[in-house]
Write a structure and sequence with these properties.
504 residues, 76% helix, mainly alpha
């Protein structure tokens, strides 16, 4: 059994063991789940060396028969594309457990068990190389998030949880139909084998078949991203979720959609990807600007950050469909950047909520006077989110804009409007929350960062700086995997199309 399989077993076993712990001992439950999550993170660090040695090839691969008929295989592995997303997931889980340490007081056992179950599901999606196995893990990740929002959320939690579930299940149904059709056509669910069969001409799809299959997968992933105008479930889910739920939803679950597009849609249906790229880029740019404009008028901090995610993830989709090396590298890097900076924003908003028990911006003001360190961490995270040079988001957005300019300079111009607007709404929120006159309610309810809160936020701040000034630690592995995918996509580009020439 290799290290990757052990990593998958750890959160699954932790979930089952947590359910066996006595529910009247919350301290034991918290300590145990924190221990399990830290073990998972340390194990994931052991994956880095072998993958970086050859990021284009699969490392820690296991490919064995799971179900004989239909032929479903337990096929998992890691490359440069999935490695950092796995690390992101294991890195954030101990932090969200610490964030919830005092806030969660009811049904503690179930809450922490669901966090471990969620980690198991998302890790499975990032490493699955069999379409059926991918679908199973995709559905597994849906279940704990539904309960985290529906049980431990705010006043409208049931509405938000059901809306999240229905949207995601609609996409899942489309994906399942496409998976079954591909199996009936090829006799396999194995992703690398499907790619090989297509490359050698043993599996051919008509233009119509390829287009419909691409759309089925793409819509499932676009709902998860979420791509404008399929985003309407996201603000409700974020607004009602507990802090840990918001962090994992923004930082990890949304990346399942963007990852699926890069892992499945592009290499399996390259011609359809080119045929549909124009309108997808239009939606991505529309989402960048729309998300930023709506964020500007939000009175609720969580909903403001949620709409900022719609805008930021529009950059990811834009970068993917430029079909350029620099654009795709920037898109994947922006997945990681968004996971760090937006996750930190939700954590900091959660810290504010624990003190003031309100998410309305008008209930704050002058927080910087009574909690200067909390305010400082919030300002640094805000600057990272808006793309200040030397911080993480700048690198991803710059690469995406460069890729967009290579394809069509107007794409970069319109997308850059979103960068400007992000500075407007984020800095405006900071000004109204942390500066100005301090109301009595804020003076009486606020303390600065505790030792536990420092332990949560400092690793995230460190990652923002490291990814901003040391992107060479991450990008080579990403670029190697992206080049392999792009070689397939570009080889299947329409011969007469001018866009590919422009991209080159």
């Amino acid at each position: 059994m290799n290290l990757l399989n052990i990593l998958l077993i750890v959160p699954a076993a932790g979930f089952l063991l947590t359910l066996l712990l006595p529910k009247d001992n919350p301290r034991l439950i918290r300590n145990f789940t924190l221990f399990v999550s830290l073990i998972a993170f340390l194990l994931s660090l052991g994956l880095i060396g072998p993958v970086l040695a050859n990021p284009q090839q699969l490392s820690f691969e296991t490919n064995t028969q799971w179900i004989e008929y239909p032929s479903i295989r337990y096929h998992v592995g890691l490359d440069g594309l999935s490695l950092w997303l796995v690390i992101l997931s294991t890195f954030l889980t101990p932090l969200v457990i610490l964030v919830s340490w005092k806030y969660i007081q009811k049904r503690v056992k179930e809450y922490y068990a669901f966090l471990l179950f969620l980690l198991f599901g998302v890790l499975g999606v990032f490493v699955a190389l069999d379409l059926f196995l991918f679908f199973v893990f995709w559905e597994v990740s849906l279940v704990p998030m539904y309960f985290l929002v529906g049980i431990w959320g705010h006043e409208r939690r049931i509405y938000a949880a059901v809306k999240f579930f229905l949207y995601t299940m609609a996409g899942s149904a489309l994906m399942f139909i496409a998976i079954v059709y591909l199996y009936n056509k090829s006799g396999t669910f194995d992703i690398p084998l499907l790619m090989d069969m297509m490359a050698k001409g043993r599996l051919t799809l008509t233009s119509t078949e390829g287009c419909w299959l691409f759309l089925a997968f793409f819509l499932a992933f676009a709902i998860k991203v979420p791509l404008f105008p399929l985003h309407t479930w996201l603000p409700d889910a974020h607004g009602e979720a507990p802090t840990a739920g918001s962090v994992m939803l923004a930082s990890v679950l949304l990346k399942l959609g963007t990852y699926g597009i890069v892992r499945i849609c592009l290499p399996l249906f390259p011609q359809a990807a080119h045929q549909n790229a124009q309108w997808i880029i239009g939606l991505a740019i529309g989402g960048i600007i729309y998300g930023a404009l709506v964020a500007m008028v939000q009175p609720n901090m969580k909903r403001l950050v949620a709409y900022s995610s719609v805008s930021h993830l529009g950059f990811v989709i834009l970068g993917v469909f430029t079909f350029t090396q620099v654009g795709l590298d920037g898109a994947v890097y922006q997945m990681l950047n968004h996971g760090i900076s937006t996750g930190a924003l939700f954590i900091l908003v959660g810290m504010l909520y624990e003190r003031r028990h309100s998410l309305e911006i008008t209930d704050y003001g002058g927080v910087g006077t009574v909690a200067p360190w909390l305010s400082t961490m919030f300002v640094i995270t805000t600057l990272a989110s808006v793309g200040l040079p030397l911080l993480n988001n700048f690198v991803g957005e710059f690469l995406v804009l460069q890729g967009a300019a290579e394809r069509n300079f107007l794409y970069a111009v319109f997308a850059a409007v979103g960068v400007i607007l992000s500075a407007v709404y984020m800095l405006w929120m900071v000004q109204r929350t942390f500066y100005g006159e301090t109301p009595d309610e804020v003076k009486h309810h606020f303390s600065d960062l505790s030792l536990r809160e420092w332990g949560v936020i400092l690793p995230l701040i460190a990652m923002m700086i490291w990814m901003g000034i040391g992107s060479s630690s991450f990008l080579p592995a990403i670029s190697a995997s992206d080049s392999k995918i792009l070689s397939v996509v570009q080889s299947k580009a329409p011969v007469a199309g001018k866009e590919l020439a422009n991209a080159r």
